């Protein structure tokens, strides 16, 4: 297994291009199943989760063409299998997103239940009850969700809690249902909005995305389209925190400051100077960060996918900050790894109190999930001595060439390939 080796190397400086959003690219790729013609997607990040999704689409029979550096064309016409097998689904929870489209377009689907993930139990009951409300017969058998339906029928669905991918699954299915579907308590995340735009380009009739009530008038068929995926707000936020922690100055381009206002607010509170300009963000940090309190909640509040990174920043900040995680019940796995680097953190249930220390010290650590991995990279950027991060396959699910991007900014970071020993 590859590892990352970091040595604290002072402030990050320079300019970076932000990639397309993983969490928007994944549902848009699933949405291609609905079309009757090829769909071209642009600004697709080069990530392991994307490769897995493309493999899944190919397994179903779709023809996938990688078109230049960041473009992908999916031709769904040859789809002949409606089974998403365990081998692919176990590595990526978002594979459940093919359920709604397969059901709506082909009237049946068998999708392996996504494997458990380190950040919590992550059930899919809301996906299933939403699709059942649209008329699907669903059974759980042999570890698979097996669903069947004639033409789906529009319904009034009130989600019990805000779920991003459940909103997306139901939204995709509803585009081809007969009549109107209303999704109440829908997720308002920008990635849901991006999916709605992609579906609208394919001919879907959708209103209200970005609010908590989405209305969909079903159509008989969806056509081919082109869509450019929005920038990754979590990648953006991660590089902003990296710059703040190292006391550097960095300009991020091809991003959208409007997507991460809650994060920018907290960075300013920590002492960062931030300038936004259309699709760019400049950040400068001229002092040791001030610890901040953070409470995660659905968009537009502070994102759970940025929680671990802010914990790393608080670990070296002046004062202490309280981090409250309200979305996932087990998203503090990075606490014990940060403690190995010398962080002073106590956690109890949903809350962690982080008392900033002057300095972290490098040590071998283990990544436990995607954003936990990112937080260890951030800690390694400022730790004294060497930090060796194991199990970075998590990181490769969601950060495009992170070691190259950080190296460009002056970080001392290298990938240690599995076959080579550490010098
Ligand atoms: C691929 C993708 O877009 N992943 C994102 C998505 O995950 P994902 O869509 O899986 O997360 P959800 O929004 O569904 O999770 C929110 C909460 O709802 C619960 N829940 C969800 C579905 C369900 O059927 N039943 C249920 O109880 C979850 O356990 C969690 O406690 O949103 C999360 C919350 O912003 C992000 O951290 C993930 O990066
Ligand atoms: C938790 C995440 O992704 P996923 O939902 O795909 O596991 C994430 O992007 O931080």
Automatic annotation (TrEMBL):
GO terms for molecular function: UDP-N-acetylglucosamine 1-carboxyvinyltransferase activity. This is UDP-N-acetylglucosamine 1-carboxyvinyltransferase. InterPro entries: Enolpyruvate_Tfrase_dom, Enolpyruvate_Tfrase_sf, MurA_subfamily, RNA3'P_cycl/enolpyr_Trfase_a/b, UDP_GlcNAc_COvinyl_MurA. PANTHER family: UDP-N-ACETYLGLUCOSAMINE 1-CARBOXYVINYLTRANSFERASE (PTHR43783). Its main location: cytoplasm. The keyword Cell wall biogenesis/degradation applies. It is found in: Cytoplasm. It comes from the Bacteria. It is an enzyme of class 2 (transferase). Transmembrane segments: none annotated. CDD domains: UdpNAET (cd01555).
